[in-house]
Amino acid sequence: MYKLVFFVPESHLEPVKTAVFATGAGKIGDYDQCCFETRGLGQFRPLAGASPFIGQPGELEQVAEVRVELVCDDHLIRAAVAALRATHPYEEPAFDSWPLAGF
Predict the structure, then answer these.
(1) Which of 40, 57, 68, 81 lies 20 to 30 angstroms, CA to CA, from 99?
(2) Would you list the domain boundaries of the chain?
(3) Residue 102: predicted pLDDT
(4) Is the CATH code 3.30.70.120 the one for domain 2-99?
(5) Using an 8 Å Cβ cutoff, are 63 and 54 in contact?
(6) Is 3 in contact with 81 (CB distance < 8 Å)?
């Protein structure tokens, strides 16, 4: 089992979650589409050569974003990350994944 955490602008929250859930991620027992969301402010500065969805190269940008946390079976994590990358509006989406210890 993996934990997948990603950050997405509020404007694209539902499409990205839908794509990730479509892979089977977010299932806990007899429940699916399970996640936890936290709203916050993301900050970044696109460097020269970047093609940012929001902002301009060289300028500091802050965006209202949502942190989404969910679990994902081992055999689905690659598909979940691929779905995240395919639907996320950012050129380089921020995400983390790590294996969970089984108890």
Answers:
(1) 40
(2) 2-99
(3) 73
(4) yes
(5) yes
(6) no
Regarding pTM above 0.85, the answer is yes
pLDDT band at residue 103 under the 50/70/90 scheme: low
Provide CB contacts within 8 A for 63, sequence distance 6+. 9, 41, 42, 43, 44, 54
CA distances from 88 to 16, 29, 54, 102 (A): 6, 27, 12, 30
Average pLDDT over residues 21-25: 98
The encoded tokens of residue 79 equal: 């598909």
Instruction: Give φ, ψ of 21 to 5 degrees.
Output: -65, -30
Give the model's confidence band at 19: pLDDT under 50 very low, under 70 low, under 90 confident, else very high.
very high
Residue 95: both structure tokens together: 């995400």
